[in-house]
Amino acid sequence: MRHRMVSDLMTTSVVRVRRDTGFKETAKLLAEYDVTAVPVVDDDERPLGVVSEADLLRKEAGQLDPAGLLPVLHPRPADRAKAEAATAEGLMNSPAVVARPQWTVVEAAQVMERHHVKRLPVVDEAGRLIGVISRADLLRVFLRGDRAIREEISREVLVRTLGLAPTAVAVQVVDGRVTLRGTVERKSLIPVVLRLCRGVDGVVDVASDLGCRIDDSSADDSVAAPEAGTSRRAQLAP
Fold first, then answer.
1. Distance separating alpha carbons of residues 218 and 224, to the nearest angstrom
2. Superfamily assignment of 6-141 in CATH?
3. What CATH code would you report for 144-236?
4. How confident is the model at residue 81 (pLDDT cuts 50, 70, 90)?
5. 129 three-class SS
6. Residue in 46, 229, 217 with CA at minimum distance from that of residue 126
7. Out of 125-129, 165-169, 204-208, 213-217, which region has the weakest mean confidence (pLDDT)?
8. Which backbone phi and psi does 53 adopt, to 5 degrees?
9. Which is it for strands 129-134 and 119-123: parallel, antiparallel or unpaired?
10. Prediction pTM value
11. Where are the domains of the chain?
12. Are 236 and 224 in contact (CB under 8 A)?
């Protein structure tokens, strides 16, 4: 069981600009390659920052309305400087928030969320640009087929990781929604099973119809284990 890595999903043909690339050339590259942002790199291909469509639009938003119908904006000094910038160095958001190719999709998603960015330049051990990972790239894990998800849960999670018998728990997956039916030895194992299944790439939701042979969550240790072949769920049924 392993999460997909940034290296599995990133784009390796990266459009990039230099710090002295002009405003119009940057805008032209965004349109030509149908991308919404480009990393700015130094002479050693190390990311310095990122220029996005939003950064370019500040210049347009800062213009006065010829008809005088729109209110005049009063941007912050930093935003005003970006609106007046003519090169990528002045336009970019810096320093660049970067990812490593060995990161999992979970790590990359958490960094994007923490820094409120939509993409991350990916760098090698020397800090050189080797790719870009975007939100859209991370969402591709949800395109995994139901069969692949079911096989990973059955083989990697239930059998290999938790040591359950192959027939102990039946796994059904429809559109990424997982349903588990069967019996495990102890009740305390059920939340572990659910947590691990939710962590499988491509899983949207997990529903459980799991029973147990021993309810080890009870403070009363005098409760006898049910006879072999009978689940705790069946024993407690009216």
1. 12
2. CBS-domain (3.10.580.10)
3. 3.30.1340.30
4. low
5. strand
6. 46
7. 213-217
8. -55, -40
9. antiparallel
10. 0.71
11. 6-141, 144-236
12. no
